[in-house]
Design a protein that fits this description.
The protein has 241 residues and is of the alpha/beta class. The chain has two domains: 108 residues, 4-Layer Sandwich (Metallo-beta-lactamase, Chain A), CATH 3.60.15; 99 residues, 4-Layer Sandwich (Metallo-beta-lactamase, Chain A). Helices cover 32% and strands 24% of the residues. The protein has nine helices and twelve strands. The strands form two sheets. The chain has a six-stranded mixed β-sheet with strand order 1-2-3-4-5-6. A six-stranded mixed β-sheet has the order 7-8-9-10-11-12. The radius of gyration is 17 Å and the shape is globular. The structure holds zinc ion (ZN) (2 copies). One zinc ion binds next to helix 2.
Length: 241
């Protein structure tokens, strides 16, 4: 399996995933032009994509769906519970071929896909796992907190893309964010903080995961070095390097 995150965070999300016989993107939250360009860096043409999988209907995850799906005739995969919200946000929905799924696992060629609900303030938000042979990839962003169901789904992953959205102190001290917005982000259906991500990584590490990529970092309320240090310091207390 090949995976490459091409954009992450509230400016737009795009992840490319490839197995031997399947090429998909997870979310399409950039302009079509930018998606074409970033895929070209991997020598991938959008016309080779088998699917666009959607986590949820927020604009940073769907901005390019209208154009990229219709221009290249790529089917858009969405959970039944998120379908209407997505459909209503897209301008070219009538021209798009949707594939709706429920909680059951499904496959795109040889790529085995599981999905699970994550707590976030969208109509419906999915996390995903992708399996090819013995390799398991989990992608988990845009969630206010983890549940036992979420943890059991991502357990045993080879690699996890995990949200580390904000440093709680930086967010609380940010003068540009209203009280209401801070409460939204910090709430149970908002975004995962660095320290919450650290707790998830501890669980993953104790269950065999060796690689985690921090994702969906806030531009204003986090930095890569703050996220990295907070998480490493937490893990070090438990002897996890
Ligand atoms: Zn997002
Ligand atoms: Zn979101």
């Amino acid at each position: 399996m090949r995976v490459c995150n091409l954009s992450s965070g509230s400016d737009g999300n795009l992840t490319y995933i490839e197995s031997k016989n399947a090429k998909v993107i997870l979310d399409a939250g950039l302009s079509a032009k930018e998606i074409e360009f970033r895929l070209s860096l991997l020598k991938v043409s959008p016309k080779d994509l088998d699917a666009i999988l959607i986590t949820h209907e927020h604009i940073d995850h769907i901005k390019g769906v209208d154009v990229i799906a219709t221009r290249y005739n790529i089917p858009v995969y969405v959970h039944n519970k998120g379908y209407n919200a997505l459909y209503n946000k897209l301008k070219r929905a009538e021209q798009i071929k949707f594939v709706r799924f429920d909680d059951m696992d499904f496959s795109i060629n040889d790529l085995k896909i599981s999905n699970f609900a994550v707590p976030h303030d969208s109509v419906y938000c999915c996390g995903y796992t992708f399996k090819e042979n013995e390799k398991k990839l989990s992608i988990l962003t845009d969630l206010g907190h983890t549940t036992s169901e979420v943890l059991s789904k991502i357990k045993g992953s080879t690699l996890v893309y995990l949200e580390a959205n904000h440093d709680e102190d930086m967010l609380k001290a940010n003068p540009n964010y209203s009280f209401v917005l801070k409460q939204r982000i910090l709430g149970k259906n908002g975004h995962l903080s660095n320290i919450s991500a650290a707790q998830v990584i501890k669980y993953l590490a104790e269950n065999g995961t060796k690689q985690v990529m921090l994702s969906h970092l806030s531009r204003e309320n986090n930095t890569p070095s703050v996220a990295y240090k907070t998480i490493c310091d937490y893990l070090k207390e438990y002897g996890i390097i």
